[in-house]
Amino acid sequence: MASRLNPYVSFAGDAKQAMEFYEGVFGGTLTVNTFGDFGSEAPPGYADKIMHGQLETPSGFTLMGADNPPGTEHKPGNNFAVSLSGDDADELRGYWEKLSAGGNVSVPLEKQMWGDVFGMCTDKFGIGWMVNITEAGA
């Protein structure tokens, strides 16, 4: 899989409805994982909230979205990040190093409960980035 860049939108508890709306607009295949899909690790009240949703459209668009996790503020206008994902760990780690340099790391780039290596940062220009490295062949 080649690396790709796409928008990632955060929602205030209505990610499922929003992502289903976008599926109706653009068509394609929507996959969602709730916080509860990962068992006892779901924060209280979040079992049915969307931890990650991804819409792949026939036109080649990819839109990702999720409900804001507990303890994070939802501010329209500040609910958007750019996602980099793929299985080329060296390429993606290189992007991470450059994007996070001089910025603020909110989630270190490390193995997560869903099995991928993931990190979040805000670059020195105030742009939010998410980097997800999928294990090759997964």
TrEMBL record:
InterPro entries: Glyas_Bleomycin-R_OHBP_Dase, Glyas_Fos-R_dOase_dom, PhnB-like. Residues 4-130 form the Glyoxalase/fosfomycin resistance/dioxygenase domain. It comes from the Bacteria. Pfam families: Glyoxalase (PF00903). CDD domains: PhnB_like. This is Glyoxalase/fosfomycin resistance/dioxygenase domain-containing protein. It comes from Streptomyces lunaelactis.
